[in-house]
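quick one, 99 residues, struct below
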Amino acid sequence: MKLTMNKTGASLEAKVAERLDTTTAPQFEKELSAQLEGVTELILDFAELSYVSSAGLRVLLSTQKVMNKQGKMILRHVNENIMEVFEITGFVDILTIEE
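---
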């Protein structure tokens, strides 16, 4: 997993590349949560994300719960394979997904 974050005021954009799985999800959660204080808008850019496992979904769900209390979380550039996982698991009803 490659993670690039850019914080501007109360907005944080995180670009996630490669895989979000059992191996990388704990690192993703740790690095992301360390930046969430004071953030009211979290944008996750999945343009280069190729795979998400149940461990990755768990982190997305817990991050969504945090952001529900302090602002909003938006997923962008979700490819067909990841979108299919979100549809099968019902995450499309929980997450805000934009083009």
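The chain has a mean pLDDT of 97.
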